[in-house]
Amino acid sequence: MPHRVPLGLVAILAFGAAVPAAADSLIGRTAAFNVLAYDDPRHPRYQGLVHTATITEQVEFGLIPEGVQNGLDVVPVTVDISAHRIEISFTPSPPGLIADATFNGYVLSFTPDCLIFNTARVDTRTTTLPVSDADITLNGRTLYVNLEGLAYESTSRVDIELDVTDCPVT
């Protein structure tokens, strides 16, 4: 069983040593992860600490409750990032409801390598929650996944397919 490390709204789990980044892939890159909830982005209702992990073939992040901020606490999930995919599993969680907010979800930034997200989309074949591509926002190398207001069970999951490339050499 992986060891979970507390973090603001979340706990993060990192495995493996540094691996060289693969072209057009997330493997070997570094991901910074945090949880964020707000109605006004200038005044977050919940802001988790930022933690990092090198993307490998292992689960990168494991989230556990950390403590309440403004009535909110983390929903236990695991986050597994692969070459072109992010899988969020609610397996460690009892059934519940993600709090309503303008944004209540996950923020993943990939650094320091030059990386371009061409697209990010929900894999509707395996995602069990009512999440659409409109719930995913890309801003440079940062991906925002908004899950506000969703009811979930331990069998719930959100899978996101990514099309990534290295920055062109100029």
**Distance separating the two termini:** 45 Å
Order of helices and strands: EEEEEEEEEEEEEEE
Radius of gyration, in angstroms, nearest whole number: 15 Å
The DSSP helix count reads 0
Oligomer: single chain
Protein structure class: mainly beta
Shape, principal axes of CA atoms: globular
Q: Roughly what fraction of the amino acids lie in strands?
A: 35-45%
For the sheet with most strands, the description reads: 6 strands, antiparallel
Number of strands: 15
Helix content: under 10%
Mean pLDDT figure: 83
**pLDDT below 50 for ≥5 consecutive residues: which ranges?**
1-20
Structure overview:
There is one protein chain. By secondary structure, this protein is an all-beta fold. It has no helices and 15 strands. The protein has strands spanning 5-7, 10-12, 30-38, 46-47, 51-54, 61-62, 78-82, 85-89, 96-97, 103-111, 115-122, 136-139, 142-146, 151-152, 157-166. Strands 3, 4, 5, 10, 12 and 13 form a six-stranded antiparallel sheet that branches. Mean pLDDT is 83; it is low at 1-20.
